[in-house]
Design brief:
mainly alpha
């Protein structure tokens, strides 16, 4: 029996909530900056990057940590892995071709 207190879906939701809280705190974090500064844009971009990379890493870790769940709900983990991985590969290709 698995003794983990948080399951694979809980990991996904926890990471999404953490990234959303960080993205929503951008106005508070950048309140001291000039109104025309790019600080809010950059911080939100970092939150999106962290969200995509985190979801990809969690989906890969779920394969090893929650084997039973992945066997039963392989399509959920597979879709998240493929979507996050394709976003990462797309931007890596765009960066390398500049």
């Amino acid at each position: 029996m698995n003794k983990n207190k948080i399951g694979p879906v809980g990991l996904y939701l926890l990471w999404i909530v953490i990234c959303l809280i960080f993205a929503l705190l951008v106005p508070v974090l950048s309140s001291h900056s000039d109104s025309s500064a790019e600080v809010p844009f950059v911080i939100r971009t970092y939150a999106i990057i962290a969200l995509v990379l985190g979801l990809f890493i969690i989906s890969l870790l779920n394969i090893f940590i929650f084997k039973e769940w992945v066997r039963r709900y392989w399509y959920i983990n597979g879709i998240i892995t493929i979507l996050a991985g394709s976003i990462i590969v797309y931007f890596l290709v765009k960066i390398l071709n500049q």
